[in-house]
Specification:
- By secondary structure, the chain is of the alpha/beta class.
- It has a single domain, classed as Rossmann fold, CATH 3.40.50.
- It contains five helices and five strands, in the order βαβαβαβαβα.
- The longest helix has 12 residues.
- It is globular and about 30 Å long.
Length: 126
Amino acid sequence: MGQQTRIVLIDDDPDACELLKMQLEDTGRMGVTYTTNSDEALAIIRKELPDLAILDINMPGIHGVEIGSTLAAEPITSAIPILYLSGMVTPNEAKDLGKGQGESLLISKGSPVEELIAAIDSLTAP
């Protein structure tokens, strides 16, 4: 088996984090570290230097888009692909909004986990 994809997940809902961590790690191909605190998010990502960051857009404190912009502006983290999650868009809206964003995608929290895994694979493919 190859090396696991290292993911840092930021979402203010601890139950959602636990569920997503379990679903992704159950693939046997992914390892997930998460925080529910947006203020800690940048420090964790800078320390872990994951293969992918999954960011909830609507967070208290620093919004996911702000975290993504900061990561993109820093040389040490600028190459980390970003998968944005939002409960404010439907799966179809997320597909339309996420098109053409380079090394980032937008997925609705209502999307099936298989779609999320496919997005992760597309962003982390060698």
